[in-house]
Fold:
Amino acid sequence: MTSTLDRTAPRDLAAALPARLSLTPKSSLAGQLDGAWWPRSRDLAAELPPLAAALAEPWGRITRVTVNPARWPSVPRTIAAGGHTLHVGWFTEQHPDKLILLSYTVGRWDLLVVPPETEPGAAARLMAAAAIPGSVLTAGALMADEAAIGRGVRDAVRRETTWESEGGACMSPFGDPLRGGAHPLAGNGRW
Structure:
C-alpha cells in the first residue's frame, strides 16, 4: 500500500479554521503584550491570513508583520490576505516567540506566539497570561515561566508514578473513588 502526503493540508486547515487568539481587553493600562496567538502550524503563508481577518474588526487592517525567523522555516516577503497584501519582515533581534503587527491607521500590537506544538493546557495558561492588561511580563518571561511550570508538572507526575510503581499508594478510608470499592477495613457496610 502506498500513501501520499498532502502538503497543502496545513494551509487548507489553517484557512478553514478561525485564528486562536486571546487579546487584552480595552483598557488604559499598557502592557508589554497585547495578547497571544496560537497558530496551528509554522507556515506563515497559511497562518497569517486568518489572523489578519480575525483582527480586522477589533484592530483594523493589518498591513505589516514582523517575526523572528528562528521559529518560522520560511518567511515570505508578502502574503495575500483578504484582498490586500501583508508585508512581512524579520528581525533576529525580536524575541522568537513574539509577533509584531502594524497598521497604517491604528498602530502597533505585540502578540505572544504560542508554539503550535504546545499542549492545550499550557497554551491556555500562556494565552491567559499574555492578555492581562498592564502586565509587565514579556514574551520571553512568559515562555520561561511556562517551561518551569511544565517541568514542575512533569516532575510531579514522575514522582507519583515512581511512588506507585514501588508499592506506595495512599488509601482513603472511604475506598478508592475511581474504582468505586470500599476500603478493605471498612467492613461490609452494616453498622
